[in-house]
Amino acid sequence: MSNSPTTPQPGRPQRSRRLLTVAAVAVPLLLLAGGIGYGLAGRGGGDGGSGGTGGDDAKAAPARTSAAPVPPPSPSPLGPLSGKVVVLDPGHNLKNRLHTADINRQVDVGNGHKECDTTGTETNAGYPEAEFTLDVVRRARTLLRAQGAEVRLTHDGDREFGPCVDERAEIGNEAKADAAVSVHADGAPEGARGFHVIMPAAVHAGKADTRAISGPSHDLGTRLAAAFAKATGTSPATYINGGTGLDTRSDLGGLNLSRVPKVFLECGNMRDAQDAGLLTSAKWRERAAHGIAAGVAAYLADEAGEKS
Questions:
Q1: Which value, in Å, is the radius of gyration of the alpha carbons in the chain?
Q2: Using one digit for the tens of pLDDT, what is the confidence trace for 194-218?
Q3: CA gap 181, 244 in Å, rounded
Q4: Are the C-beta atoms of residues 55 and 45 closer than 8 Å to each other?
Q5: Among 93, 107, 120, 302, which residue is least crowded by beta carbons within 10 Å?
Q6: Nearby residues of 244 by Cβ (< 8 Å), 6 or more positions away
Q7: Closest CA to 48 of 61, 31, 39, 36
Q8: Which among 173, 281, 303 has a CA at the least distance from the CA of 233?
Q9: Mind spelling out the 3-state secondary structure of the chain?
Q10: More confident residue, 261 or 70
Q11: What's the per-residue H, E or C state across 6-58?
């Protein structure tokens, strides 16, 4: 994957915020006791959301059976997010390794071309990013639907490969999603720890035009980062953008082609032993799902308050 420099965040006026009661947007959070410190390391990253020494060149996941799709719960008709549409995008696909020609196909992302998709990264013990992301997204779907949101996934373990990054963006566009989150885990060097959120720069090139959604996406990203830190007890990655945990990029097709507020969440570094210990824990993945649901709920409630 490309290790392109961070794109400066476009300036935009600050908007007044309406104070919200905790009860209106709260998601039950399972708190991990104590913060976790993080060391400095070089960044990774790319459209697949996983870096390592080469990101897209990270070795393919070992053969294993993809979990079968889980029948999702119905949205709660009386929840605070009733009427809202959320698209969750589980990064990569366990079957991508079987379709290298398909996922290496170049797609137009407006200001350039990217691979259709990648295999993603994995822990040193062989736990694939694609398995991690699908599990976390299914958990977050359950939590958001309990609050009344209509939640759609870009895939549910039911695709032979992909979908490609342009199709992932189009799924959110066609759904007219109020918010979209693409879930990943990074593949940075050992010693690099923590999570970060990637937000779209204001791109206007070819079929990409994020000028209208770059500001709202930044709002979504900041609320997601705060909620994720609180729910998981982990800290923003110190190897990204000075330890802010927030990164703005113009080279990711899944963001460039979005016409709805959208961010990428890198939940941790699979190549670091300590982060891998968290990412492979079912209890921690549940905390991660709570953080995602809480961040999305806070953003949607805030947007609703501004419009009322």
A1: 18
A2: 999 999 999 999 999 999 999 999 9
A3: 19
A4: yes
A5: 107
A6: 236
A7: 61
A8: 281
A9: CCCCCCCCCCCCCCCCCCCCCHHHHCCCCCCCCCCCCCECCCCCCCCCCCCCCCHHHCCCCCCCCCCCCCCCCCCCCCCCCCCCEEEEEECCCHHHHHCHHHHCCEEECCCCEEECCCCCCECCCCCEHHHHHHHHHHHHHHHHHHCCCEEEECCCCCCCCCCCHHHHHHHHHHHCCCEEEEEEEECCCCCECCEEEEEECCCEECCEECCCCHHHHHHHHHHHHHHHHHHHCCCECCCCHHHCCEEEECCCHHHHCCCCCEEEEEEEECCCHHHHHHHCCHHHHHHHHHHHHHHHHHHHHHHHHHHC
A10: 261
A11: CCCCCCCCCCCCCCCCHHHHCCCCCCCCCCCCCECCCCCCCCCCCCCCCHHHC
Q: Taking Cα atoms as reference points, which of 191, 192, 216, 212 lies closest to residue 203?
A: 212
Residue whose structure tokens are 């390592």: 52
Tokens of 116: 């259709």
CB 163 within 8 Å of CB 154: yes
Spatial contact of 205 and 5, defined as CB atoms under 8 Å apart:
no
Q: Which of 203, 188, 189, 289 is nearest to 254 (CA)?
A: 203
**Could you report the per-residue pLDDT of 266-295, keeping only the tens digit for each?**
999 999 999 999 999 999 999 999 999 999
Q: Which residues contact 65 (CB under 8 A, 6 or more apart)?
A: none
On whether the pTM is more than 0.90, the answer is no
Cis peptide before 8 (omega within 30 of 0): no
Q: Among candidates 222, 217, 288, which has minimal Cα distance to 254? A: 217
- CA atoms of 3 and 73, how far apart (whole Å): 39
- Catalytic pick among 266, 286, 303, 306: 266
> Catalytic annotation on 266?
yes
pLDDT digits (tens, 9 = 90+) for 154-182: 999 999 999 999 999 999 999 999 999 99
